[in-house]
UniProtKB/TrEMBL annotation:
<feature type="site" description="Transition state stabilizer">
    <location>
        <position position="22"/>
    </location>
</feature>
<protein>
    <recommendedName>
        <fullName>Bifunctional enzyme IspD/IspF</fullName>
        <ecNumber>2.7.7.60</ecNumber>
        <ecNumber>4.6.1.12</ecNumber>
    </recommendedName>
</protein>
<keyword id="KW-0548">Nucleotidyltransferase</keyword>
<keyword id="KW-0808">Transferase</keyword>
<comment type="pathway">
    <text>Isoprenoid biosynthesis; isopentenyl diphosphate biosynthesis via DXP pathway; isopentenyl diphosphate from 1-deoxy-D-xylulose 5-phosphate: step 2/6.</text>
</comment>
<keyword id="KW-0511">Multifunctional enzyme</keyword>
<comment type="function">
    <text>Bifunctional enzyme that catalyzes the formation of 4-diphosphocytidyl-2-C-methyl-D-erythritol from CTP and 2-C-methyl-D-erythritol 4-phosphate (MEP) (IspD), and catalyzes the conversion of 4-diphosphocytidyl-2-C-methyl-D-erythritol 2-phosphate (CDP-ME2P) to 2-C-methyl-D-erythritol 2,4-cyclodiphosphate (ME-CPP) with a corresponding release of cytidine 5-monophosphate (CMP) (IspF).</text>
</comment>
<feature type="region of interest" description="2-C-methyl-D-erythritol 4-phosphate cytidylyltransferase">
    <location>
        <begin position="1"/>
        <end position="225"/>
    </location>
</feature>
<keyword id="KW-0479">Metal-binding</keyword>
<comment type="similarity">
    <text>In the C-terminal section; belongs to the IspF family.</text>
</comment>
<dbReference type="GO" id="GO:0050518">
    <property type="term" value="F:2-C-methyl-D-erythritol 4-phosphate cytidylyltransferase activity"/>
</dbReference>
<keyword id="KW-0456">Lyase</keyword>
<comment type="similarity">
    <text>Belongs to the IspF family.</text>
</comment>
<comment type="pathway">
    <text>Isoprenoid biosynthesis; isopentenyl diphosphate biosynthesis via DXP pathway; isopentenyl diphosphate from 1-deoxy-D-xylulose 5-phosphate: step 4/6.</text>
</comment>
<dbReference type="GO" id="GO:0008685">
    <property type="term" value="F:2-C-methyl-D-erythritol 2,4-cyclodiphosphate synthase activity"/>
</dbReference>
<feature type="site" description="Positions MEP for the nucleophilic attack">
    <location>
        <position position="152"/>
    </location>
</feature>
<feature type="site" description="Transition state stabilizer">
    <location>
        <position position="15"/>
    </location>
</feature>
Length: 225
């Protein structure tokens, strides 16, 4: 099957409040975005990689992706979901069989994880990586008071890349009424698409806060002398 990776990198990263969006922060010898892309561009089963960005970041983007073979970038939307939709619409002329949708904010995606998602798609329209939730969940009031939380039994945390049959997820995005869903499995659900889960990877965490960035830097070991 033809497979395209769609990487959304059009967010402003406001929770990190850095001088530039987090996907363009340095991480080891490259910018964070380059790490998030390389497992896809290197993967023998992936035909093309499409990145969605905010065009006002285009100078940073060109620097970040030096040496990568990518489709021309697509301009993102106001929300993550809008950015995914823009990327899917731009891919309609390729009409791949499969699309893997990935957050640029996850630089530690592995090729094994990509394989698990692709394998999972053999039997279903959608397949997402998940990790178990081991901490007990609490809901906090506006005053930071602890109230009861949802039972963690039966709950998992969703990661990306999330894989889908291209035609199915494009249709789900086109018909989805709500534009503030935070992942594509939620969009798939609105269209009644079956979505399977495979084992995610604890290293494949999403960079959201300054602490996440510190953890990411600690994971990039400097080259040996
Ligand atoms: O904000 P959050 O970290 O949840 O965003 C997840 C991913 O979606 C990030 O890689 C971000 O760049 C992307 N995004 C986007 N367009 C937006 C908002 C977020 O491409 N309008």
């Amino acid at each position: 099957p033809s497979v395209v990776a769609l990487v959304v990198a059009a967010g402003r990263g406001e929770r990190l409040s850095s001088e530039r969006p987090k996907q363009y922060l340095p991480l080891g010898e490259r910018m964070l975005l380059a790490h998030s892309l390389r497992r896809f561009t290197e993967h023998p089963g992936i035909d093309h990689v499409q990145v969605v960005i905010d065009p006002s970041d285009s100078a940073l983007y060109e620097k970040a992706v030096q040496g990568f073979d990518l489709l021309p970038f697509v301009a993102g939307g106001e929300t993550r979901q809008g950015s995914v939709r823009a990327g899917l619409e731009a891919l309609t002329h390729f009409h791949p069989d499969i699309v893997l949708i990935h957050d640029a904010a996850r630089p530690f995606v592995s090729s094994n994880l990509i394989d698990r998602v692709l394998d999972g798609l053999a039997h279903t329209a959608g397949c997402i990586p998940v990790v178990p939730i081991t901490d007990t969940l609490k809901r906090l009031s506006a005053r930071q008071e602890v109230t009861s939380g949802p039972d963690r039994n039966g709950l998992s945390a969703a990661q990306t890349p999330q894989g889908f049959r291209f035609a199915s997820i494009l249709n789900a995005h086109r018909t989805c009424g709500n534009d503030s869903l935070t992942d594509d499995a939620a969009v798939a659900e609105t269209a009644g698409l079956p979505v399977a889960a495979v084992a995610g990877d604890p290293y494949n965490f999403k960079i959201t806060s300054r602490d996440d960035m510190t953890r990411a830097e600690a994971m990039i070991l400097p080259p040996m002398e």
